[in-house]
Amino acid sequence: MKLFKPKTKTFLPFHRPSLGKAEEREILDTLRSGWITTGPKTIEFEKRFARYIGCKHAIALNSCTAGLHLALVALGIGEGDEVITSPITFPATANVIIHQKARPVFVDVEPDTLNIDPDKIEASITPRTKAIIPIHFAGHPCDMDRILSIAKRYNLAIIEDAAHAIEAKYHQQKIGTIGNFTSFSFYATKNITTGEGGMLTTNNDEFADKIRILRLHGISKDAWKRYGSEGYKHWDVIYPGYKYNMFDIQAALGLHQLKKIERFWKIRKTYVEMYDDAFKSIPEIILLSRRPHIKHSYHLYVILVKNEDLKVDRDTIMNLIQSEGVGIGIHFRSLHLHPFYRRTFHFKRGDFPNAAYASERVISLPLYPALQEKDVRRVIKVVKKVISQSR
Ligand SMILES: *Cc1c(COP(=O)(O)O)cnc(C)c1O
Q1: Smallest CA separation from ligand 1 atom 5, residue
Q2: Can you tell me whether residue 184 is helix, strand or coil?
Q3: Which of 64, 115, 194 to mutate to test the pocket of ligand 1 (most atoms within 8 A of CB)?
Q4: I need a surface site. Which of 34, 118, 141, 279 has the fewest CB within 10 A?
């Protein structure tokens, strides 16, 4: 597989998108076609993505955040409502609940997967609860059987944050076909990328129609139809919609990224196995669990450094790794510890102990197809060195 090469070899970045000639050609084709906004390539990308997931509707958007937001809007979630989610996530998951003037209700994570702990969901349900947003953290599917049965019992909608989980399966069932809505991300660091971009999937025809209208100003006909060969057509405003559409330059990337998705996955799987082998016997490193009966999408390789057994804290270890020329990520510091959430909801550190514990220990290591095996070996060497220096 031919991918563009990095310019510098001294610093190994945390992520590099895996783009190549095919994407370049498709972008040029888009530019030369005279149609650069939402049009034939976006429609084709939606079709192929829906086929890949095995869902009825895939709606292309400018982000995963937009998908999470539109799902809440379509469900009519608003002021006075509560939405359950977990705090080890990117801010978008909870911010969109705030945008709807609803209240995010955090439930702590399982310590070994950092996914929402299904045992703790019921205690957080009130008569105002309308939906649950499970996050398939790092690409490991949440315990959907348990979450579905709770949702059914209390008549709650499920909106899955699958930003990490495009390839993931839960008991043979593809993520994107389970909850009422699933939102995927094609941000630059995700498993496949359109630079910025997202896709919302659903099997519900009515919601799909509504979301297609909401994503582009709430008008009845998109530009592709308004300016088509059949002549000008009037359009009507049906809802006060949003500007959330994907455009064809993004879709041009997506079409080719999607073709490579399983090849990319296999490469990351090899690297995950190398990391597992290297780190499983280091007592100061905790690896996340992988449950049976799931297909992990291997989006992030997260280690927890047991700073209680080391002389230094995570941030020092993080800086030491980076000063050795290896880029890392932090996924995530719990949202309940961030100023806005702490201040608005009066959270204390101990409110979500597993999330708080992880917040101070997680480090994500480079994991992407543009890496070579020797890069992975280099990361392993650096991490081992830094840990042994910190004992
Ligand atoms: C990246 C990410 C998002 C947001 O995706 P965008 O496409 O950037 O909007 C949401 N949730 C999680 C867990 C993410 O990692």
Answers
A1: 64
A2: strand
A3: 64
A4: 34
Distance (angstroms) between ligand 1 centre and the Cα of 143 equals 20
How close is the Cα of 227 to the center of ligand 1, in Å?
33
Instruction: Name every residue whose Cβ is closer than 8 Å to that of residue 336 and which is 6 or more positions away in sequence.
Output: 87, 106, 342, 345, 347, 351, 352, 355, 356
pLDDT 10s digits, 261-271: 999 999 999 99
Q: Which residues are catalytic?
A: 190
Q: In this structure, what DSSP letter does residue 188 have?
A: T
133 C-alpha vs ligand 1 centroid, how far in Å?
13
Does 363 have pLDDT greater than 90?
yes
Please name the amino acid found at residue 271: Y
Burial classification of residue 261, based on how many CB atoms lie within 10 Å of its CB (0-12 exposed, 13-18 middle, 19 or more buried): middle
d(CA 184, CA 162): 5
pLDDT of residue 230: 76
Beta pairing, strands 181-185 & 157-161: parallel
